[in-house]
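Key result, reporting period 2: structure in, sequence out.
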């Protein structure tokens, strides 16, 4: 009898495979980074072939660490960086171009063109999204317009598209030899091409954005048996879950009830609020997204606040400015000072996402004086994550009409206790970390395990959630308000930077 459920977590900077026991505890993890490619300012790419090789390596490595074989795994789920776009030849398996990453801003002119007739919210009632460089549809169009011969090959039926979940599942299940070309509603709702009500590709959206229907994957439930892994250590294991990374984290945090929310701290930050079977339209700069769909059950929707750059700002301090040697050193550096010294960093490297949606914004460092040192810069970098999350939480409170009482947190940055304390301070509510902080992988494993009977129902999963630590707010209201006021001033300095 199977002892474990597994997840392949294909992220922005790395891929990992995690294996969980029935209690939701980590049995094994294997993780490898892949190259970040920056051909010119604002462009971010990955090599899909390299990413898939890393995925194969981490799957084999994780199973080796538990000392088991494929028969010990009930199922594997896939979770992924969501809007990152791959177009490849269904006959050869070769990508026609590098994957265009969700942070990439090259589609700004396409988005401006789409917005001329009806504004940035032209499609929002259908797809829940503003027109923005963030999403997949304009990226597909850019490839079809800029890579020689691709439009003709696509219309002939030879080229297919997917976010990274689709690319991984296609390769896992055979590739050119019968690989499944599928996605789930949580990923499809990030393309600008899916109708939120029908959970199907929408002809009006396809025509307006310029993507042939023949390129698109079949939309399957987030938790369902799709097919088997065909090679490697996992050969024969059912692929049975597919969730975009932030929806997977929401699932892993067991936010199954209306009004439950979580915030994931990774390359970017993503705050999601469960709104149940109703797709709630935001009036305050959030997006409406599918949370998950279990089998034949009705889809569950979320409001989401998407922040482009949080953990990536720490990586920028490490890789570009050489201020630290590893990301983990940022907390010690920040603790060498008592505050930010009046310095604020707004990392609008890819424009501003929620709640502003300004692709023409660019990053600023504000409030510099001769007093400021590298410790202040490190602290300002951490604080920018908390300030951006506060802005999204305020928008979520306004949309939902419900005041946030506490915040469940997860992701790589939640080990940073200085950041977590400041997050509680600037929100004015407790911040709560679970024992298993990598809930993205856990959610994908849960989805796969539910589909195959490893777990019988979602309520079983709630019993696995255990609080690890909570941070109570310690900052007085006046200090909180002043800090936030200066943050807002710094944000305004980023607006309309590009002509």
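The corresponding designed sequence is given below.
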């Amino acid at each position: 009898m199977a002892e474990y459920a597994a997840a392949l977590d294909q992220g922005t900077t790395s891929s990992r495979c995690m294996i969980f026991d029935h209690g939701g505890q980590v049995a094994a993890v294997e993780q490898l980074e892949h190259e970040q490619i920056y051909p010119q300012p604002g462009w971010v790419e990955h090599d899909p072939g390299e990413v898939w090789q890393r995925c194969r390596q981490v799957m084999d490595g994780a199973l080796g660490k538990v000392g088991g074989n494929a028969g010990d795994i009930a199922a594997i789920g896939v979770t992924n960086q969501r809007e990152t776009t791959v177009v490849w030849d269904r006959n050869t398996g070769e990508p026609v171009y590098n994957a265009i990453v969700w942070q990439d801003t090259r589609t700004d002119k396409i988005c401006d063109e789409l917005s001329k007739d009806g504004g940035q919210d032209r499609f929002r009632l259908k797809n829940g999204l503003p027109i923005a460089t963030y999403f997949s549809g304009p990226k597909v169009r850019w490839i079809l317009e800029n890579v020689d011969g691709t439009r003709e090959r696509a219309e002939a039926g030879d080229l297919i598209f997917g976010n990274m979940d689709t690319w991984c599942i296609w390769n896992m299940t055979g590739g050119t030899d019968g690989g499944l070309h599928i996605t789930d509603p949580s990923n499809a709702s990030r393309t600008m091409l899916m109708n939120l009500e029908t959970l199907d590709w929408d002809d009006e959206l396809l025509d307006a954005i310029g993507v042939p229907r023949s390129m698109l994957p079949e939309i399957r439930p987030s938790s369902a048996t799709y097919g088997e892994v065909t090679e490697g250590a996992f050969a024969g294991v059912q692929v049975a879950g597919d969730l975009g990374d932030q929806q997977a984290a929401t699932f892993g945090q067991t936010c199954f009830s209306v009004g439950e929310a979580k915030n994931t701290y990774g390359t970017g930050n993503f705050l999601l609020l469960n709104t149940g079977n109703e797709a709630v339209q935001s009036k305050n700069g959030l997006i409406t997204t599918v949370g998950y769909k279990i089998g034949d059950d009705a889809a569950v929707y979320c409001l989401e606040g998407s922040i482009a750059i949080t953990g990536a700002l720490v990586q920028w301090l490490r890789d570009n400015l050489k201020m630290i040697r590893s990301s983990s050193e940022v907390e010690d550096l920040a603790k060498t000072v008592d505050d930010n010294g009046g310095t604020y960093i707004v990392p609008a490297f890819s424009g501003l996402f929620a709640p502003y949606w300004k692709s023409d914004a660019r990053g600023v460092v504000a409030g510099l004086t001769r007093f400021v040192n590298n410790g202040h810069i490190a602290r300002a970098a951490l604080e920018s994550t908390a300030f951006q999350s506060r802005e999204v939480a305020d928008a979520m409170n306004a949309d939902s009409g419900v005041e946030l009482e506490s915040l469940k947190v997860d992701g790589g940055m939640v080990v940073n206790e200085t950041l977590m304390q400041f997050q509680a301070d600037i929100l004015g509510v407790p911040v709560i970390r679970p024992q298993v902080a990598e809930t993205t992988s856990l959610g994908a494993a849960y989805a796969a395990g539910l589909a195959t009977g490893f777990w019988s129902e979602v309520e079983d999963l709630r019993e696995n959630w255990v609080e690890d630590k909570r941070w109570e707010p310690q900052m007085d209201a006046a200090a909180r308000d002043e800090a936030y006021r200066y943050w807002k001033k710094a944000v305004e300095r980023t607006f309309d930077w590009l002509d």
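The longest helix spans residues 374-400. The longest strand covers residues 26-33. This case is discussed further under Risks and Mitigation.
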